[in-house]
Amino acid sequence: MMVRRKRQFIGFGFDPGESAHHFAVIFPDRAEDPVTIEERFEWNDELDADAARPSLVKVRLDRYRWGRIAEAARGQFNNKIRSGGHRSVSWKTDQPNILPPHFGKELTLLAWAVEDMDESLIPNVIANWTGLEPEERWWLYTTVNATFTKAEMGKDRGWRKAIKIAFSENPIPEIPGERFVEEPDPIPLPRREDAPKAGSAAPASGAKRKKKAALRKSSQFPLFEES
Description:
The protein is built from six helices and four strands. It is α+β, with helices and mostly antiparallel strands. Strand 1 (22-26) and strand 2 form a beta hairpin. Helix 1 runs antiparallel to helix 2 (101-114).
């Protein structure tokens, strides 16, 4: 008999039984130091440190910019977490915050967009990021991630620069889909009271007979008058 493994729920829903790959948000001891988002590939304290694949620092954000995006990201992630039957999760400053890869990619994309961003444009960035589907965020992360290897490199080049520009534009307002659908004019259905009555058919037929007689009479005139 196969015993079903109980799924673990660590941090924002990471399960090391599925994969060791995960992300971590790390708060520094000093408030003036930046918050770090890392991509990690190992989840085993017993593994030889020399054989382990090193973690990658994806982005570093100052506390102010992190504070501007933290609740928006947490709200998006908790909506998904609650839909799976789990309770909401909060950011913890005294330990690494563990995220599954899909959440880590979405958060990193948002952090890339706001790093070095004009503070007045951060609401636009959050609105545009929130308006994307998770699959769209994953695609953008993968595209940006392929263009550089270190957090400090490539900030103002290629796709990493492009998302800053795209996300900082005024977000497109949500327009109900009904506005784009033209309602066809209703086709009136015949009603019983509009149906012609038996006695009303005679005048119509009489008018038709008079019209035919007039046409016959007019056809008797010659085409050319005699001089």
